[in-house]
Write a structure and sequence with these properties.
Aspartate Aminotransferase, domain 1; Histidinol-phosphate aminotransferase; 4-stranded antiparallel β-sheet; alpha/beta; single chain; Aspartate Aminotransferase, domain 2; 2 domains; 7-stranded mixed β-sheet; transferase; 36% helix; 11 strands; PyrdxlP-dep_Trfase; 348 residues; binds pyridoxal-5'-phosphate
């Protein structure tokens, strides 16, 4: 148990005072009986989408609960994890006063959201093995430090953070620890969502954008204590996840077996890709990956990036990130796409 943790001290004062907005769909909950709905100024002509979506996403959460083994009251869903992350900022960070800690090189959204929300972003670089520097992170905190973002597997480096480092941070960090598990389905280790009951300061985020092949519907998942979820629910827009997204997400989660098969294919392809490019002279390092992409260090990232672009292959140049000089990030594609990438890289 983290003895410094007190949720009440972390929630913004204005948020504490809020009551959740009660929409028409909240006030009357159908008992399954055939009712006449004249409460929400909807258009009555049925087309499958003329009604507002369930603001509590009950069916979807029930299935997420089953698939992810997290209680429904410990789940929040959002319009992509980006919305979930933004809600976390707005619930806990007082603009112009509070600060957060991020660990570059990492996912760019944390910094963007800190800027939008006017929250100081304290950056503590990862070690040269791309691991959290626990002592430096703890030293960077003060009484206004609200959030720590741990992206594991980390984007763009691809590695997972050490179990001991994360656990120590969960025990000793004074604010909330947000573990971004966007790539967890590709990782060898399990999710931190199984430790929610051990750590009241833990928030885990996941997404349907990567392993579930559903980036287009925008569905982000957030797992945390019932108390934290209740705070986030107070500030979420009532209909933040639209009906089409709820339906498609439900289908995707029902087909979890297909997702697992695709993940296995991508993992095989990741291995094949890194082995195939291992002997290319201008590739200096191929970093180990626990995700669906590989970070490589090359002789001249700008040059190689442009050469690939000329051949019709778009990758990501990560060179401007700290510790990532001359690195490129390659997403694992289909067998055919990877073949094209391999032969093109070899021919440069
Ligand atoms: C891709 C990615 C996400 C996904 O965000 P969505 O808004 O759910 O699409 C979240 N975190 C990280 C680290 C990512 O790389």
């Amino acid at each position: 148990m983290n003895t410094l943790f007190n949720l009440d001290l972390l929630v913004r004062e204005n948020v504490k005072a809020l009551k959740p907005y009660s929409s028409a769909r909240d006030e009357y909950v159908s008992s399954g009986e055939q009712m006449v709905f004249l409460d929400a100024n909807e258009n009555p002509f049925e087309n499958g989408l003329n009604r507002y979506p369930d603001p509590h996403q009950r069916n979807l959460k029930q299935l997420i609960s089953k698939v992810k083994q997290v209680e429904a009251c410990q789940i929040l869903v959002g319009n992509g994890s980006d919305e979930v992350l933004d809600l976390i900022f707005r619930a806990f960070c007082e603009p112009g006063k509070d600060n957060i800690i991020t660990l570059p090189p990492t996912y760019g959204m944390y910094k963007v959201l800190s800027g939008i929300n006017n929250i100081e972003n304290r950056e503590v670089l990862l070690t040269d093995k791309f691991q959290p520097n626990v002592d430096e992170i703890l030293a960077a905190t003060d009484e206004n430090t609200k959030l720590l973002f741990l992206c594991t597997p980390n984007n763009p480096t691809g590695n997972s953070f050490d179990f001991e480092a994360i656990e120590r941070l969960l025990f000793e960090f004074p604010g909330l620890v947000v573990v971004d598990e966007a790539y967890i389905d590709f990782a060898t280790n399990g999710s931190w969502s199984f430790r929610l009951n051990d750590f009241p300061n833990l928030i885990v985020t996941q997404t349907l954008s990567k392993a579930f092949a559903m980036a287009g519907i925008r569905l982000g998942l957030c797992f945390a204590s019932e108390e934290i979820i209740a705070v986030l629910k107070k500030i979420k827009p009532p209909y933040n996840v639209n009906e089409l997204t709820q339906q498609k997400a439900f289908e995707a989660l029902e087909n979890y077996e297909t997702v697992k098969e695709q993940v296995q294919t991508l993992l095989k392809e990741r291995k094949r890709l890194s082995e195939a490019i291992a002997t290319i002279p201008y590739i200096e390092t191929i970093y180990d990956s626990d995700a669906n992409f590989i970070l490589i260090k090359v002789d001249d990232a700008n040059k190689r990036y442009n050469q690939l672009l000329e051949k019709g292959i778009v990758i990501r140049n990560r060179s401007t990130q700290p510790l990532c000089e001359n690195t490129l990030r390659l997403t694992v594609g289909t067998i055919e796409e990877n073949d094209k990438l391999i032969s093109t890289l070899k021919a440069l």
